[in-house]
Write a structure and sequence with these properties.
Strands 2-1-3-4 form a four-stranded parallel sheet, with helices on one face. It is α/β, with parallel strands linked by helices. The longest helix has 12 residues. The mean pLDDT is 86. It has one domain: Rossmann fold. Strand 3, helix 4 and strand 4 form a beta-alpha-beta unit. The protein contains five helices and four strands, in the order H-E-H-E-H-E-H-E-H.
Length: 159
């Protein structure tokens, strides 16, 4: 399915939403393509980030994603998630999945499996690719493949 071709409105969720950078980006792309966009769910564990997101967009993000049932998340076309990077970053502790924040990727997989959106956009640091000699990325890719959903994986480097 080509979302930009077959839809007039894109419904998305914004996991680990922070201040809303992903939301700004998708809303801009939708405007450029003459599409409506609708953020149907957002969450972030940081209360200050939630307050700023609310001030920026008028939506009140939910809190800890590990405490939210997938069935409580509205259906959506795109799942966006900038999951915590500290466990994989050279600026962090590099503990990967040994750090609780590192395991939050599996929350994305849980929601993908339950909701099966047409597309998803994960974001993390460049070091994720080589973390633990590539084993971390291998686990992530294997997890996504095990979902048996028709996603095509693409990678992009941004500055």
């Amino acid at each position: 399915m080509n979302l930009l071709k077959d839809s007039k409105k894109i419904r998305f969720i914004d996991l680990f939403c922070g201040l809303g950078g992903f939301r700004v980006a998708i809303e801009r792309v939708c405007r450029q393509k003459n599409l409506e966009s609708d953020c149907v769910f957002s969450c972030d564990i940081d209360k200050d980030a939630r307050a700023i997101y609310h001030a920026n967009f008028g939506d009140q993000p939910q809190g800890d994603i590990t405490e939210i049932a997938a069935l409580d998340i509205p259906n959506h076309d795109i799942l966006m998630a900038g999951f915590p990077c500290q466990p994989f970053s050279i600026c962090g502790d590099l503990k990967g999945f040994e750090d609780t924040r590192g395991t939050l990727f599996f929350e994305i997989a849980r929601i993908l499996k339950a909701k099966q959106p047409a597309a998803f956009i994960p974001e993390n640091v460049k070091q994720l690719q080589g973390h633990q000699q590539g084993k971390t990325l291998e686990v992530i890719l294997d997890t996504l493949q095990d979902l048996v959903l028709p996603y095509r994986l693409s990678g992009f480097e941004c500055a």
